[in-house]
Amino acid sequence: MNKIESLALAQLARKALLDKKGVNPILLDVRELSSVTDYYLIATGNSAPHLKALGEEMNHVLGPLVGERKRRAGNPDSGWLVVDYLSVVVHLFLPHTREYYALEELWSDAPRIN
User: Whole-angstrom Cα distance, residue 12 to residue 96?
Assistant: First the structure.
């Protein structure tokens, strides 16, 4: 997947999270900072069931475009769910977990995509 396709996929994922009432989704361009992925998408869910719904929405929207997710880690009850599509990695948090891990601060050198 090239950079334009990766960005389109990341933007589609962000829109899907917004449509499912994901809170404060932030899209970070980490192409110059990471060899793991092109974009990190970070969002908050209001509860464990909401995190589960957000993760399922990612697969529903992105799955037909890229096939099934490549990896999924964590679970909604832990407060952190990661859905990996190789060029886009989606981190879904409960509010206190997002604050604790502060990925936006960890990747503060990464440009934010509006």
Answer: 26
**What's 31-74 look like in SS3?**
CCCCCCCCEEEEEECCCHHHHHHHHHHHHHHHHHHHCCCCEEEE
Alpha-carbon distance 15 to 113, whole Å?
A: 12
Q: Which fold is adopted by the domain 3-113?
A: Beta Polymerase; domain 2 (3.30.460)
Contact 79, 47 (CB under 8 A): no
Domain ranges of the chain: 3-113
**Cα 28 from Cα 45, distance rounded (Å):** 18
Rounded Cα distance, 97 and 79, in Å = 6
Q: What pTM value is reported for the model?
A: 0.90
Contacts of 96 (CB under 8 A, 6+ apart): 79
For every residue of 5-23, which 3-state class applies, written as one string?
HHHHHHHHHHHHHHHCCCE
pLDDT digits (tens, 9 = 90+) for 40-76: 999 999 999 999 999 999 888 888 887 655 788 898 9
